[in-house]
Input
Amino acid sequence: MVTENPSSPIPRVYGLMAEFEKPEALLEAAHRAYEQGYRRMDAYSPFPVEGLSEALGMRRTALPLVVLGGGITGALAGYFMQYYATVIDYPINVGGRPLHSWPAYIPITFEMTILFAAFAAVLGMFALNGLPQPYHPVFNVPSFELASRTHFFLAIEASDPLFDLEKTLEFLESLNPNDVSVIEP
Amino acid sequence: MDRQEPDRRIEQIPVLKPGHTFASVTDKISQIVLTRRTSRFWWVGFAISFILLQALMISVLYLFARGVGIWGLNVPVGWAFDITNLVWWIGIGHAGTLISAILLLFRQDWRTSINRFAEAMTLFAVANAALFPLLHLGRPLFAYYIFPYPNTMGLWPQFRSPLVWDAFAIGTYGIVSALFWYMGLIPDLATLRDRARSRIWQIIYGIFAMGWRGSALHWHRYQTAYFLMAAIATPLVISVHSIIGLDFAYSIVPGWHATIFPPYFVAGAVFSGFAMVLTIAIPLRRFYDLEDFITLRHLDNMAKVMLAMGLIVAYGYLMENFMAWYSGDEFEIATYYNRLVGEYGPFYIAMLVFNVLVPQLFWSIRIRRSPLALFIISIIINIGMWLERFMIIVGGLYHDYLPSSWHVFIPTFWDFSTFLGTIGLFFALIFLFIRFLPVISIFEMRELVQEQEAHGD
Output
């Protein structure tokens, strides 16, 4: 059932990929693979499947902290920019009103908080995900274009210590996939 | 959605017509973009918008050559159509953020099929809104003075002024809306990349998809980021229109100096924004055969939101009149009296009819479920909300504290051509968006299919 490409001699492979039709089947397969001890693996789906990243052993993401950091940076930058401008660099005495008029600084401080937090969220997500990444071996699997449409994939990478072409193939076949393919590097 | 007494007739309409699969939703939405044949509806719509856009180009060119004197401005009325249009456009934008962010946080599944084009609408509306303060400047080439940047004059913008807050608020809003929208598009761009037949489009969509491959670990961070963005955008959208409200409330012009302005402006913004979403959604679902995805349930829910917002707006009208009377201030009272019986009286009465009376039709379930009625009412509300801003701005300015300088504002041809021109720009961008990007979030529709299957309905 393995789709092989005769022009490239195995065993130099990136990994093995099993194809499923249902998100539940993929979730089940991910759990089984984790139980088997596989760690260097990834699952691909056309929409976020609840519990899938946890099944693959992902615990939590640092993204919320990145966003918090962005927000705090923005707030401080926004506030002190205004403080510096109106108190230190260019103080204007208007009828003896206090130079450090903090209530008037709030709107811009708030907007800057939002702006920096939003950039942190989007750029942080890209950075943690390693995007943009124009090339990835999984795209070499012909049926992988269905990962953005209808089908669900589980890939076990060759860099996993437990990876063995024969045994891993056998294991993936036991999960009742539609198909198992070799991922060329 | 759990309610005390679910309305059986409506609850029977699902947010997605049953029977769809992952493949069918993907193909149906992506084929609008990937098909070679462009529909006649698109060509006609785009052509009209494009002609109006040319009116904008000419108006702006003439404006830059001659200055703001080409508009009907005079001494007490230093800004009229331009700021009216700014507030109108930015208000329209707010519905997009409300749908994509606030409804996401409240886990309203009916947002799924309308959030994408509502966000696009936000983006294009904000772009139009941002145009007007620029055009209104006597010397638009110095627009950047409003931002703090190191300069040889050693000057800073006035950070205590709502006009500077405005620049920060609208700038932030535009950038955050664009980021949110683009991030939401990435998985769908990957779908288009994989489905496109021509090499050139594979490359273009591929570049913008950034190599998205739907990895579970990526989805995890993606969803975290998406929710955080929604949580960030929610207070942002409220702050933006509040600050616009403060532009007026901070000043001492009669009819502007009211503390109710920020919340009343936010409600008005959502009200007019939903009207514009309906104006776009109804022809869109009709001509692109998207009735399975944008169902009567969506239209019904949007009508309900508009009814609620319309009532808040009506309360705002009531309160600002009451406060003017209660203040005992002659000029305040005269301003409100003048709105009703002055030169612009007919517009004020039209505004009350359009924004207060007409939305009461939404109490009827038959109206809420009739696309044609909703389409007509949505346009009426769009006009009504434009009149509201016009009445606030010009109605306050033209009769200010100095009776000798009272002056009626009469718009010129260029006032109208600039305004209609931005409508052209807006719809030209909307049509381009419809042709080149998926109008409905495909991956979220797949999720909806999955949920529908899981719940067995």
